[in-house]
Amino acid sequence: MLDLHGIDNVVLEARSRDYVEHRQRAGLIEQATVNFLAELGVDERLRREGLVHGGIELRFDGRGHRIAMDELTGGRTVTIYAQTEIVKDLIAARLQRGGPLLFDTEALALGDIDGERPRVRACGSEGEFDLECELIAACDGFHGIGRPGMPPALLRSAGHSYPYAWLGILAEAPPSCDELIYCHSDRGFALHSMRSPEVSRLYLQVAPDARIEDWSDQRIWEELHLRLAQDGWSLTEGPVLEKGITPMRSFVAWPMRHGRLFLAGDAAHIVPPTGAKGLNLAAWDVHILGEAILASFEQGNDSLLDAYSDTCLCRVWRAQDFSYWMTTMLHAEPEDPGGYSRRLQLARLAYVCSSESAARSLAENYVGIERI
Ligand SMILES: Cc1cc2nc3c(=O)[nH]c(=O)nc-3n(C[C@H](O)[C@H](O)[C@H](O)COP(=O)(O)OP(=O)(O)OC[C@H]3O[C@@H](n4cnc5c(N)ncnc54)[C@H](O)[C@@H]3O)c2cc1C
Fold it and tell me: In what order do the strands lie in the sheet with 261-263?
């Protein structure tokens, strides 16, 4: 975004190009993110290869119920396109324009974020160096140095840990469904998703301390068959290309700005992946930040920079609520005396599938509320 407007900027990335282009993560893109990528001119492959979905299936008690998101939201849809592919497209566009994109270069410390010329101390292939700039966008994820670089007395945070994790596999198998299946079962949650017409992405709820060594490919497929079972439907298996376990966590830190330091994406907030909001929120933050930087640099108007944190946090908390709601509706609670939580979940699911206004609320949040 800054490149397109001729504003000098340097991107530091601690890992290698190969690593970031192959790190499996999100895969569901909201319309607003698609539009943003189009605005940046990096949507050509996404338009060609992305799979546009107008609905999802909620499966519980062994039966599927379609939520027609497009009909419920005036024609809005989501697109299945892997985060790895977005990263590849953004890197290719950046290298083509020639702006500095330094891989294997780690930001070590931030300095003078209250002053006019904040600094980043970084270490790359040629040793340590200082970068002096006008502002710093810390898009460095949950474990980066951006958030710890905020004054401790100012930064507040709140969060929630869930008593479960997701085991995800990427399988060389044609998807067994046209749209995503979110499945509630007494054995735990399962999600059937896809990356392309040839590759499926599947998830299982597992214990938070589960070890990937204990989950052979055969055990994973057996469990997926049991949880996703529905009369007349079958799951296609294929070689497992990759598998991993992701913890489930909700977290927000605020304010998202102090002085000349701005936090964006996972650096400031984490959602459990059930609502597919992590990547979309990160894209939203940088879109808002990009517009604010342009207004400041091109028109001398700092009001959008001043409003950045509050503007982002409105959407962040909406996504937090939706992600928590989806997660707690669909995952089996490990401690559930008498099955109270399970029955509440089934009552919620039945309501969402029988009331148009309840379904619309899910659909509107899932495809992404337009402007908050
Ligand atoms: C295993 C996993 C699975 C996920 N699945 C989903 C999903 O299915 N759906 C969904 O919506 N979301 C999912 N997410 C969340 C989603 O991927 C994130 O919300 C999204 O990547 C956030 O983007 P980001 O740019 O803020 O952070 P990141 O993608 O984490 O990018 C931060 C980058 O900063 C780099 N970095 C860190 N520290 C430094 C430093 N000191 N110096 C230089 N560079 C640094 C890192 O190497 C990294 O490349 C998943 C996340 C994980 C970890």
Answer: 136-138, 261-263, 257-258
- Are 276 and 296 within 8 A, CB to CB? no
The β-bridge relationship of strands 101-102 and 11-12 is parallel
Residue 139 CB less than 6 A away from ligand 1:
yes
Q: What is the pLDDT along the chain (372 residues), one digit of tens a residue?
A: 999 999 999 999 999 999 999 998 899 999 999 999 999 999 999 999 999 999 999 999 999 999 999 999 999 999 999 999 999 999 999 999 998 999 999 999 999 999 999 999 999 999 999 999 999 999 999 999 999 999 999 999 999 999 999 999 999 999 999 999 999 999 999 999 999 999 999 999 999 999 999 999 999 999 999 999 999 999 999 999 999 999 999 999 999 999 999 999 999 999 999 999 999 999 999 999 999 999 999 999 999 999 999 999 999 999 999 999 999 999 999 999 999 999 999 999 999 999 999 999 999 999 998 766
- Nearest atom within ligand 1 for CA of residue 201: 8
Domains of the chain in start order, with CATH, are: 3-158+249-331 (3.50.50.60)
* β-bridge mates for residue 122, sequence order: 107, 129
Q: Which residue in the block uniquely carries the two structure tokens 């790895």?
A: 84
Measure the CA–CA gap between 170 and 239, rounded to whole angstroms.
9
Structure tokens at 164: 């479960």
Bridging pattern class, strands 181-183 and 56-60: parallel
Q: 29, 145, 279, 286: which to mutate for ligand 1, most atoms within 8 A of CB?
A: 279
Nearest atom (ligand 1) to Cα of 106: 42
